[in-house]
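Sample entry (90 residues):
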Amino acid sequence: FMADHANMIVSHQLDCDQNYIYFDALYANYPLVHNSARYRHLGYFYPESDVVAGAEAVLTAWREHDRNLKDYGHAVTRAVADLSPLARVN
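Predicted structure, serialized as tokens:
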């Protein structure tokens, strides 16, 4: 469904900083627009319930995602590696 019908994932959470759908979206290289402070370094973050910042994040993702896909993928790879049960710190 996603490959045929979606270009972006927007996830707005209230009091839920960790949502595993983030990693599915990031791993598949979809632009993820979200408000999770825990993962502010991944995807396209906007704070809390700031609708204007969220709209700006959507526009940024739409304009820049394909151009920055290589860097986006590197950030995701590092983040997923940090969460791996095989990571030394874990």
